[in-house]
Amino acid sequence: MKFSLISVLGLAIGTSAFVSNPAHKTVSITTSTTTTTSITTASITTSTTMPTAAITAAFGSSTQLYGKRKPFITGNWKLNPATKDEAISLARDIVASVNADTPGDVGLFVPFPFIETVQNICGDKITVGAEMVTPEMKGAFTGGISPLMLKSIGVQWALAGHSERRTINKETDEYINSQCLKLIENGMSVILCIGETIDEYELNLAGAVCEIQLKKGLSGISKEDTSRVAIAYEPVWAIGTGKVATPEIAQTVHAQIRATLAEMYGQDIADSIRILYGGSVSPDSVDGLLAKPDIDGALVGGASLSGESFGRIMNFKVSSFNDSDFVGGAKQLFDLLCRINCSWFAFSQKLPKPV
Quick check: is 162 catalytic? Predict the structure, then answer.
């Protein structure tokens, strides 16, 4: 059953103002009174601002209420386009869509020959990264591209563990982990890609597969270095197939990934790491996906090869809060606000009556 969270708040405390910022998935609740007198109850510390801990406790999850994760929309060009001139044209089309209202960070992961050209076009509007990196730093490794080589031309981000490199190039979890470690050791950042095949998904193994790939991929990376890590969940069965996991399916797996990160690093770190969805993201699917509380961005393949399509994706529509996302915590919040209201009423009875 759906019901309006706003109506719950209105019933609980008539003087409350409900202020939301869906773009950053934050909610703040303040009273309209200017009184600064403290009221002592089990749930509040001051009478003018509901404390963070109380609101978080009411919902049972800081992710929905206090996630400070800025959306990250990224494009992966793969082995495209065919020429430098086409890369220039595509980059110009994409950067033209970045504006003051673009709700998050934007990144492009492009083939090595085009990196510096695309950097010059994008400037500081779009982060330009590499599609892969080799963990070796120098030596007899024909075709290798080291983190330091990339860093020397201004690259700060690289992908690791993309499903195509896992399957086509036979990159193992151990090799992918060495890529992540070398990027971090050299002061760079990484998007670690994880995800299950269709057979694993149908056996209900998505969570288990992602947990294994996540733990192996991030092995040896400290809490302090997780600020330079993002995760991309890529259901392999949805990449390049036109199929896309429903927002509900994607949210379920993203929540499992965040739970694994919490097990590895603690809840605060888990709540700070951006988890992107990658699997045939399109202009039609992006709004529903980004409306979910644990989906913090997208790793876009085919649609990033069109300036119009990727422009629409990077400027996804920030929808209002979905009531259904809050049903589980609404009753607890209602009870909390009722207690605050009752405490305020009891306190107000002790105030001097106006003459």
Answer: yes
The active-site residue, picked from 162, 200, 211, 254, is 162
Lowest mean pLDDT of 64-78, 130-144, 319-333, name the range.
319-333
**Of the listed ranges 155-159, 292-296, 317-321, the one predicted with least confidence:** 317-321
Residue 174 annotated in active site: no
Residue 22 identity (one-letter amino acid): P
Q: 309 with 287: CB under 8 angstroms?
A: no
Tell me how far apart the alpha carbons of residues 32 and 108 are, in angstroms, rounded to a whole number.
Answer: 44
DSSP 8-state class, residue 321 = P
Q: Which of 217, 239, 240, 246 is closest to 230 using CA atoms?
A: 217
Closest CA to 292 of 330, 315, 326, 261: 326
Q: CA 133 to CA 115: how far, in whole Å? A: 13
| pLDDT at position 352 | 65
Going by C-alpha positions, the residue among 233, 163, 236, 248 that lies closest to residue 196 is 236
pLDDT of amino acid 318: 83
Dist CA 245 CA 7 (whole Å): 32
What pTM was estimated for this model as a whole? Answer: 0.75
| Cβ pair 74, 108 in contact under 8 A | yes
Verify cis geometry, omega within 30 degrees of 0, for the bond prior to 22. no
At 159, which helix (H) or strand (E)?
strand 157-160
Tell me which of 131, 196, 200, 234 is the catalytic residue. Answer: 234
| Residues in the chain, overall count | 355
Report pLDDT digits (tens) over 153-169.
999 999 999 999 999 99
Find the DSSP H helices in 107-188.
Answer: 115-122, 147-152, 163-167, 173-185
